[in-house]
Design a protein that fits this description.
alpha/beta; Rossmann fold; three-stranded antiparallel sheet; 8 strands; 51% helix; 15% strand; globular; binds adenosine-5'-diphosphate; binds zinc ion
Length: 224
């Protein structure tokens, strides 16, 4: 088994973070921690946190920092994340969240931050055609629907468009990415942690690029 990793993945909505994270989580045997998935699960089961999150998520607004930092602090304290590491998808999303993350990880730190770079025109196209299973979260698209009648191939759940993938919410999310999240690129570049990948390439090539970047860093560190 390979060594674990402590990884943050950045990228616009529709850059393909979720898809890469599922594969990377298997490869490095570390949990895929997606704040968006955590909020959607909480919204579905109607918990207090879910009710609070819904007021932000469906409109494409950011959930307040204190709430997000709280759920991440709790999740990172679990044994799996403390041991082999984690892949963070959708967190941090503001410089304040990034600072909170560094503090949570002390005396350790992140190994690497991947920026999955994709043109806005391409993500707009991907998001408009994205469809997702409302039960298990598996992704489909208008071009690649499930085999039977918009029922999920894996669990039979109903495959729908996410409310926040409708066009007004998409624009809000992309604007927020630009204003709140893209400053993280410079932040992590200054910390020497950033690797930029071309997210427009085919999925398998992107995966190979990411694994090579992670492994090169791990190898350099074990030599030093
Ligand atoms: P997206 O494709 O927009 O990145 P996600 O599934 O990552 O979607 O997140 C869905 C929504 O959950 C976001 O639009 C936001 O409302 C909320 N959310 C997720 N992560 C965070 C975060 N780190 N800070 C604030 N809000 C968040
Ligand atoms: Zn499903």
């Amino acid at each position: 088994m390979s060594a674990g990793v402590r990884l943050v993945i950045l990228g616009k909505q529709g850059a393909g973070k979720g898809t890469q994270c599922v594969q990377l989580s298997r490869h490095y045997v570390v949990p895929h921690i997606s704040t968006g998935d955590m909020f959607r699960a909480a919204m579905k089961s109607g918990t207090q946190m879910g009710l609070l999150a819904r007021t932000f998520v469906d409109d494409g607004q950011l959930v307040p920092d204190e709430v997000v930092i709280g759920i991440i602090a709790e999740r990172l304290s679990d044994k799996d994340a403390r041991g082999r590491g984690f892949i963070l998808d959708g967190f941090p999303r503001t410089v304040h969240q990034a600072q909170a993350l560094s503090e949570l990880l002390l005396p350790g730190r992140l190994d690497i931050v991947i920026d999955l770079a994709v043109d806005t025109a391409l993500v707009l196209e991907r998001l408009a055609s994205r469809r997702v299973c409302s039960s298990c979260g598996h992704n489909y698209s208008v071009q690649k629907p499930p085999k039977f009648n918009w029922n999920c191939d894996h669990c039979g759940g109903e495959v729908v468009q996410r409310p926040d993938d409708k066009s007004e919410a998409i624009q809000t999310r992309l604007d927020l990415y630009e204003s709140q999240t893209s400053p993280l690129i410079e932040h992590y570049c200054n910390e020497g942690l950033l690797e930029t990948m071309d997210g427009a390439k085919p999925m398998d090539e992107v995966f190979t690029d990411i694994v090579n970047a992670i492994d090169a860093r791990q190898a350099a560190r074990s030599r030093s």
